[in-house]
Amino acid sequence: MIFLSRTLPLVIAFAFGMLGVIGYYVPHGDAQSLEREMALWMRIVFAFSYLLGLYSLLNLHWQRIRQRVAGWAYSLIAILSFAVMMVFVVYNDGLGPFTAQAEAGGYKWLFDNIQVSCASTMFSILAFFIASAAYRTFRARTPEAAVLLIAAVIVMLGRVPIGRELSDFFPIATDWLLNVPNLAAKRGILLGVSLGAIATSLRIIFGIERSYLGGGAE
Amino acid sequence: MMHKLLAIDRRIIFALVFLSVAGPLLAGISLPITPTNEVKAAYDQFEKLDAGDIVLVSFSYGASTQPEMLPMSRAMLRHAFRRDLKVVAICLWPEAPGLAQQVLEEMTAEFDLEYGVDYAFMGYKPGNFSVILNMGQDFHSAFPQDQWGAETGDLDLTRGLRSLRDFDLVLDLAAGDSIEFWWIPYGQEKYGFTFVAGCTAVMAPDLYPFLDSGQLGGLLGGLAGAAEYETLIDRRGSASTGMSAQSMAHLVIVVFVLMGNIAYFAVRRTSSEQRS
Amino acid sequence: MRAKNWLSALVLAWPLASAAENAEQGIDIPAAPGIGTLLADPLPPIEEQELGELLAHPEPPIKVQAFDTPNDDGGSITLTWPRNPQISENAMYQVAIADSPSGPFRVVAEVAATGNLMSEAPALFGRRADLENHHYVNVEEFAAAGGKTPLEDGKTYYFHIDVRSAGGAIRGKVIVNAESKGNFFNNSKINNLVLCLVFSGLIMGYIGIARRRELKIRRIAGLEALDEALGRATEMGKPVLFIHGLRGMDAISTIAAVNILGRVARRTAEYDTALRVVAPDPVVLSVSQETMKASYVEAGRPDAFNPDHVFIAGTDQFSYAAAVEGIMIRDRPAAHIMMGYFYAESLLLAETGSTTGAIQIAGTDAFTQLPFFVTTCDYTLLGEELYAASAYLSGEPRMLGSLKGQDGGKAILLAVLVLGTLLETFLGWSQLTHFFTP
Lengths: 218, 276, 438
Fold this sequence. Notes:
The complex is a heterotrimer of chains A (218), B (276) and C (438). Chain B is α/β, with parallel strands linked by helices. Helices cover 57% and strands 12% of the residues of chain B. Chain B has a six-stranded parallel beta sheet, sandwiched between helices. At the A-C interface, helix 2, helix 4 and helix 8 of A face helix 5, helix 7, helix 8, helix 9 and helix 10 of C.
């Protein structure tokens, strides 16, 4: 049991980790076809993981409906929405489930008119939240916060045409802020993140980091 | 008074933001737009190509970001087709095919394009970066069929494509991690093609280092980037119209931030005076 | 490696060709005016304008070299030849290919008289100063009767380079040949390999040191606050909500988040506090379930573990955000712990969370989302602090060692950055920069 749940995954992680490294440095056709196979398998595994997600989502909402927990009606809507969408996908505008998706039909209509509208609405709420959060929290409490505040005002005005109308200073200063201090900070973080990635990859390849198997670091 | 201002109801802020966006849109106000260097660089990459060159366009955004991403998709594809470039479209996000189809249909109507010759639509493939790795090795293996079930080898445009190296330009239109975490490490860095990207405004500052390193040949950030591109191709669209609303919204937020700070300092001063 | 390839190029003298030979070989090169020594055909009359072209020395190159393109998986041959500084700017070099020295030759590439300089491809040829005096071209396929045909590895191909100008084309005098093959190492990545080995060595070295003696790392306020948040949830009798970021298990930030989850789950098991975990990705869900289960077993409370407390709230960005916001509003957890890589949903989650009055602790390496978390959460783990969390919470020597190794790597990079900037600024010496680029 321990062999299947621990040893074998660690051996697989080591072997495929090393193959990934070799594939990066060796351009030979054999190494590349091995990498191609790996990429293909990754895609297959990735596709199967959707089934796992689907099960979890439906199970969660089914349990909520069964136990009549607060807001169970939303869970019912979620399952019904899934069922309606699924029916139209399978029906496929009369072509059936075993051909490529039709260019038009109920699925396309639902996607264009419900999914797109709902998702866009969620995204647009950000504008309201940003305004509210900025008003409540963006205070020049310290000299550093004051610098941040001034930079934010300049960038907000410099990124839109009205800034240029007010003064040429805004777009010029925005360019400088984005290309100098912003870039410096991003590079610093990127270097740290990359080193962190190297360290974590090494820990995974050599079996030191095992949290991805579930059950903590050890 | 200042205390009240500090504790202003969130709904008042929301209402003012709503008015600042809706007002300019309804009034149809338009403002002059000046392209930035990164958008000009993206435009120049298209200008460098010759008629008949093939561009791979990856749609990596979903329905939520469509209002921000659609105008730039439209402007860049319009530029490509105007220059007689061939376009192969793929989707790396499950939600993207419907959105890509919409913009491709618009372009087909506008430019009288022939499917399979002027453009091809390969649809969605799951696997994120592994699809890019797969395309780098063998395009036909990654996309054996197009979105409508036709064999990739049967389409004039895709028949001769062997790998990512066969594309003269790759464009990723993204609302997630596909530019920084998929296309640059697994595509551009490995296969060395010219890479241009369009992304949501909030992602853009994250991508500036890649412009500097040359891994990104140009970048469009959000609606502002799309509006600048519309200016460059001399065809104003929804992005240019939206910039007046965005300008006003930014102005309102700046005013709120300044008001909040004035109230904060006034309250702090009063409190310290009372203490002393 | 490259020297071997260059040596493998075989240069053959090309016999002076006649127009009749050209026709026999299927070569479609019009007779060039004025170069009587090369072509025996009667010369067409020379226009005044063409005379100018001829005076600009449009001779085909003689020192042509062909070799297998280095650093690739085969199917490509590279040709190089010296630049002729006196050639007309309008002239073009035409590269022709055949599978036997007697032809038929087909044109496979055209190179402008001022284009395709070897200095423009440092990944292929390096950065020697004299490279700007040579042209190059990579040949991967040629047009045959049945369409484009890729080069076959191990097969010998023959090339000659002609010059075409306004006055016509002049056939190249030399024929070169080469075979393509797949290479076993990409030389342009040597610097990458060296850096990789240095950083790996540092990290493994520090792990070794950590096994022998205790290493200390600085206090991370956000992680110290975890216990405070869990304690508060216990006192209030309310659940703790752990929110994963949007990236999958391949992201370092997600691995770090799972490590933190393990620690949080152990504490909630000990305190008998409810823990809900939301994930946007099925693999993250599965790993989180296993981690939580192991933590509950370690805490001696396997009975308290319920796999349904870890669930997918939505796989789409804003469906996920909407679902999590709903949970925040309905269940009113006492603490929200947001760990991983977040996008635009960060502010939606954190702002909604802040209105419920819960303690909020966030950790992300998403640079653009940090300001949103900093303004709306009580504690925020910034960038690498998230990665350090695994080591910090576990206190395990090997993890601490790898953290120190990262610091060592960072110190080297900082030193190189400072040194490189000084050298480039004051001496104009850019070789250090080139060491870090392909």
